[in-house]
Amino acid sequence: MSSSSCNNSACLNEARRVAIFGGTHGNEMSGVTLVNLWVKNSAEIQRKGVETKPFITNPKAVEKCTRYVDTDLNRAFTPENLSAPGGDNLPYEVQRAQEINRIFGPKESPDAYDVIFDLHNTTSNMGCTLILESSKDHFNLQMMHYIKKAIAPASCLVLLNEHPLLKYSTSRSVAKHPVGLEVGPQPQGVLRSNIFEAMRVILKHALDFIELFNEGMEFPPCTVEAFRVLERIDYPRDANGNIIAMVHPNLQDCDWEPLNPGDPMFQTFDGKTIRYHGSGTVYPTFINEAAYYEKQQAFVTTRREALVASAIRKI
Amino acid sequence: MEPVSLPPLSRVAICGGTHGNEMSGVYMVREMQKQKVHRTESVSITTVLSNPRAVDACRRYMETDLNRCFTDALLSAPITDSTPYELRRARELNAQLGPKGSPEAVDLLCDLHNTTANMGVCLIFYSLDWITLHIYNYIQSKMTSAPVRAIQMDLPISEAYSLESVGKHGIAIEVGPQPTGVTRADIFNMMKEAVDLTLEWLQKLNSGSTFEGGEVEAYTLVKSVDYPRDPTTNDITAAIHPQLQDNDFKLLKPGDPIFLSFSGETVKHEGEELYPLFVNECAYYEKKIAFHLAKKVTLTFPSISVRKED
């Protein structure tokens, strides 16, 4: 998307093509349910001047109510995968990634969709979380600022994953402005009414923002409080790789709260406490996410950062 | 009631991973095996990972729900090439811990489960059985970390379909809420406490203690309620209402909300006052159950002690 600076505002093209992805993980039910609803009746997501397309990204996984069939779709959008030959012999999710890249991309080209919202749930107690992939995406920063203000006093936090090693190739990364929406806690395969409605409200405000932007509203510079991903912490394991401890009761459900050196972190199955021995206070999140046991992650640490968004308006 | 005396209960089986993604039991059994927990003074303990393939895959089951495979009929049906994995596994478990209904069966079979429903610690058993009622009473009187309740399944043993029916006495320990695939320390600790108390009670019984009779409240299932569905697609059209969600065991009265539809309508409970359980259990979506409804009953039991053999 071309942008230029005019009078200290970033001037950006209108966001004309927007997609809402559900079922990137087939057992994360809020997104599956919302997208299915909107595929049948899209009135709620229509906005003037925007084409908003609801889309189930991983239908086979949704049908089986499982996270994925062959491989995690939300890690599959690497350049290698997107250009891999092999057609039907490729893992299902790699085929899906190529298909999604055809419809909504190509990734990093001028033809890519403007915005993609990717709907997720987590078993972690993260509340409503918006996931940002770049601290320099002023459009996304302004959107997130708008959403946070709109739902106050209810909270919606921003997680920034710009870490060169820990960031991953998400379904939404096909778009110019990828927005992850993670709401928890919710068990896999379960639909909780409060979680579902919270996600729905956030999307409503997100689409309102896009409509306002497209109509010409200028958004002044603002600061967005965010949590920047620092590192992934695995479970303690024995020599055979078996997990030997659980997230400590004092840490369980305490996403976004400070974890200080010396604080309890894990509890072994025979009752001993393992403490955090980092050099300073961190803010853990994705604490005890079911899907991350196999990815060697008990939680990620973050630090708080104020991100500055320049003013934006449409060209 | 007349006091009851019985022979010592010397053989116990602790089973976990009957559903491969219910993690407390999986880790409980693994830990007991690691610590080589084979016996207390008077009780020999067998620990079993019931569905190892499902545990490896972190799934509830591979082909069919193992915990529905233990009816007399299913245990005796002929095995063919197309017999699902879990039915074969049920035979193996029946041979190892049973056979169901025979004198060789373990004295007590304890099967460990988790639920996504907010049920705290819930003991499930078939038939009026003094042993299981005493264990329930004992655990309830000693556990402070969670509410302890019991569900009595009203089925004759021949039709009993779950693993614990293989033992001479059987109890399922269900602890929630916990998502599938997740191990919560607080939930694990509750499960461990319940298992430790069970073994402690057996040990005390075998050593000559008399346990006084009394009364306990339990729940018996009356019916189950499915989600509202679209008549053409059969898709669910509503979620458990926020006022019912997490309120297992809280009396449901006519007019109380039970579902909130995606288009904003509230569906209300009609009919008699009953207690909801297994509210929003993830495995029950495919069984077309949003929640069960139960009535409360008071069960009386006699004092119990071990028959001294001279």
Automatic annotation (TrEMBL), chain A:
CDD domains: M14_ASPA (cd06909). It comes from the Eukaryota. Substrate binds at residues 74-75, 168-172. The active site is at residue 182. Pfam families: AstE_AspA_cat (PF24827), AstE_AspA_hybrid (PF04952). Keywords: Cytoplasm, Hydrolase, Metal-binding, Nucleus, Zinc. Gene3D superfamilies: 2.20.25.160, Zn peptidases. InterPro entries: AspA/AstE_fam, Aspartoacylase, AstE_AspA_cat, Aste_AspA_hybrid_dom. Zn(2+) binds at residues 25, 28, 120. Residues 15-210 form the Succinylglutamate desuccinylase/Aspartoacylase catalytic domain. SUPFAM superfamilies: Zn-dependent exopeptidases. Its main location: cytoplasm. Residues 223-303 form the AstE/AspA barrel-sandwich hybrid domain. Belongs to the AspA/AstE family. Aspartoacylase subfamily. This is Aspartoacylase. It comes from Perca flavescens (American yellow perch).
From TrEMBL, chain B:
One of its GO terms (molecular function) is aminoacylase activity. Its cofactor is Zn(2+). Residues 10-197 form the Succinylglutamate desuccinylase/Aspartoacylase catalytic domain. It is found in: Apical cell membrane; Cytoplasm. Keywords: Cell membrane, Cytoplasm, Hydrolase, Membrane, Metal-binding, Zinc. Residues 215-296 form the AstE/AspA barrel-sandwich hybrid domain. CDD domains: M14_ASPA (cd06909). Binds 1 zinc ion per subunit. SUPFAM superfamilies: Zn-dependent exopeptidases. Its EC number is 3.5.1.114. Its main location: membrane. It is a peripheral membrane protein. It catalyses: an N-acyl-aromatic L-alpha-amino acid + H2O = an aromatic L-alpha-amino acid + a carboxylate; an N-acetyl-L-cysteine-S-conjugate + H2O = an S-substituted L-cysteine + acetate. Zn(2+) binds at residues 19, 22, 113. The keyword Acetylation does not apply. The active site is at residue 174. GO terms for cellular component: apical plasma membrane; cytosol. Belongs to the AspA/AstE family. Aspartoacylase subfamily. This is N-acyl-aromatic-L-amino acid amidohydrolase. It comes from Perca flavescens.
